[in-house]
Amino acid sequence: MSDKSPKPQEPDTDVHDDPDEPAFEWMKPASSGATSAAGNSAPADAATKAQPASSASTGSQPASTTGSQPAASTGSQPESRAGRKAAEAAETEPEPPLFAGSSPAGKPTGGASHSEPLPTSALQVRPPEEEVARRNAEREQAAKVKPLAPRIFQVLLAIFFPIILLVLAVRAVASPLFLWIEYNRPGFPGDGYGFSTEDRMTYGSYAVDYLSNWAGPRYLGGLVHEDGNQLFKDSEVSHMADVKLVILSSFGAGLLLIILSFIAIMYLRKKSDGGVRRGLFAGSIVTLVIIIGLAVLAVLSWQQFFTEFHRIFFASGTWTFSLEDTLIRLFPGQFWIDAGIVIGALVFLAATVTFILTWPTRRRRGLGAKSADADETADVEAGTADPTKESATTKR
Fold first, then answer.
1. 3-state helix, strand, coil in the chain (%, to 5)
2. Which residue, 61, 73, 118, 335, shows the most beta carbons closer than 10 Å to its own?
């Protein structure tokens, strides 16, 4: 393009010469009523402006043909986002009120003062008083019902307690210490066949040790007297083996019950407030009843009691011996009477102490703290109700 080439003329933008041309509609000033519509279609008008301007500058197409395009695009241009949301909000139906005759905001719209509630409002209606009372009673009953496991552990603890005390008392008697006390106490009958107190202590310790160790019958069967004769006969050794079986079984059962009682105590301490105390209290009562009953039977007829006791654990004819046998010389009848008294006394003493320590006093049952709180609450209420009395008390 040279300097001599003619310069392009500027297009005529005067809209007053061609008022009827649709191509120049976009250049006319917008009216006040169409301001919002023009604002929404501003992007479309901007695009339309570019097309007529380019066509006018080239001069290749008539103005009337070009002017038909912006009018059509303006009519089909979608609304803006704000306009669409406003239209959607206007088209959305209002939420129906809870009660007929009231507005969604909860204000009455006129008409009758009372109207039927909607079906969905039934959840907010209070049930009848009878139904409320029945539900409250069921809740209280469910709260009063205690779990079953703590009760089972309490019963087991009460059953295990007397057995454990009896086993521990038997273990205390089946010891060399009790043997020494018996042989050296005044009034204990001596041996009429030649055993001195030292001989009794030596041979008796062998018999007592055999009951608590894991040695076989040879432990007693191999013992000989000074003259070389066998100290214990075969029948005596066989009976001591039966006694050992009973003693070790009772010791094992006692150890197992101690472990189970310890587990029950740990469980009750976590799950039941006062459960250990109640279990031991019941166990002490059971123990006292049993030991008192056995003591009465033993006092009324010791020989019958002793015989029936042996019949329970030993076969008939395996536990009777002559006065010359070693077992009778080491453990005469007085020895078993004293052993029974000591066992009963130890069990009775332990049960009595447990009974006293677990007696359900108000403080142990937790009623003392509750009554103190109640008294304090009553005092506070009384002071609030009668301020003059409180001020008089303060002056004193």
1. 65, 0, 30
2. 335
- Written as six digits, the tokens of 297 are 């039977």
Alpha carbon dihedral 288, 292, 294, 298, in 10-degree steps, equals: 150
Within 8 A by CB and 6+ apart from 259, the residues are: none
The pLDDT assigned to 45 comes to 47
Cα gap 72→48, rounded to integer Å: 10
Instruction: Measure the CA–CA gap between 312 and 304, rounded to whole angstroms.
Output: 13
**Angle ∠(185,190,191) on CA atoms, nearest 5:** 145
Q: How far apart are CA 125 and CA 99, in angstroms?
A: 13
| Portion of the chain with pLDDT greater than 90, in percent | 45
Rounded Cα–Cα distance for residues 231 and 241 (Å): 15
Q: Is 389:382 a contact under the CB 8 Å cutoff?
A: yes
Question: 163-202 pLDDT, tens per residue?
Answer: 999 999 999 999 999 999 999 999 999 998 889 999 999 9
pLDDT for residue 248? 95
The residue among 333, 332, 322, 338 whose CA lies nearest residue 236 is 322
Q: What is residue 272's DSSP assignment?
A: -
Of 108, 112, 113, the closest CA to residue 97 belongs to 108
Distance separating the N- and C-terminal Cα atoms of the chain: 121
Residue tagged 């306009």 (tokens): 83
Q: Is the pTM of this model over 0.70?
A: no
Angle CA 213–217–218, to nearest 5: 105
* 354 residue type, one letter: T
| Beta bridge partner(s), residue 117 | 99
Location of structure tokens 């303060």: 394
**197-222: per-residue pLDDT in tens?**
999 999 999 999 999 999 999 999 99
Higher pLDDT, 303 or 82: 303
**pLDDT, tens digit (0-9, with 9 covering 90-100), for 94-131:** 555 555 455 555 455 544 455 565 555 555 567 788 88
The count of other CB atoms within 10 Å of the CB of residue 219 is: 19
Please give the single-letter amino acid code of residue 331: F
